[in-house]
Amino acid sequence: MTQETAMLRVQRGGPDNEPTFDEFAVPYREGMSVLDALIWVRANTDSSLAIRYSCTNANTCKECMVKVDGKTVYACTARLGREPVTVGPLTNKRLLRDLVTDIVPPKEKLSLLLGRE
Ligand code: FES
After folding, report:
1. What architecture is the 5-114 domain classified under in CATH?
2. What tens digit of pLDDT does each residue of 102-114 get?
3. How many CA atoms lie within 13 A of 63 on its CB side?
4. Is the Cβ atom of 24 under 6 angstroms away from ligand 1?
């Protein structure tokens, strides 16, 4: 039996350079999420891929938000199909690297700077 694969086209790069795209083939299993595939890529193909997540399911932490085929989704709840998908960072937040954007609310940043809770 041959293993089915899913194809991900992932935006790479930081805020100071033009984005590039890398393609990754990921072993596909029914019901897997886009986050499952990105974690697999980091563990097996390219550990330099920058992603952010915390809770891994059910949009509790909201740290995994990315664009999949141009739509804003939680990577942990977006189901991967057999069709290739393009994954990119949020476009309304400051890009840090690859799929990671600066999502800390402005008030929270000020608190961090001032050392307050
Ligand atoms: S990983 Fe927490 S909401 Fe997706």
Report:
1. Roll (3.10)
2. 987 767 766 767 7
3. 10
4. no
- Ligand 1: does its nearest atom lie under 6 Å from the Cβ of 76? yes
User: What are the Cα distances from residue 11, in Å, to 50, 60, 78, 111, 112?
Assistant: 10, 25, 17, 31, 29
Determine the residue of 36, 51, 63, 66 to mutate for testing ligand 1's pocket, defined as the one with the most ligand atoms within 8 A of the Cβ atom: 63
Is the CB–ligand 1 distance for residue 34 below 6 Å? no
Can you tell me the distance from the alpha carbon of 98 to that of 10, in angstroms, rounded to the nearest whole number?
8
Q: Is the CB of 56 under 6 A from ligand 1?
A: yes
**Confidence class of residue 1 from pLDDT cuts 50, 70 and 90?**
low
Report domain extents, the chain: 5-114
**pTM of the entire predicted model:** 0.87
H/E element, 95: strand 95-97
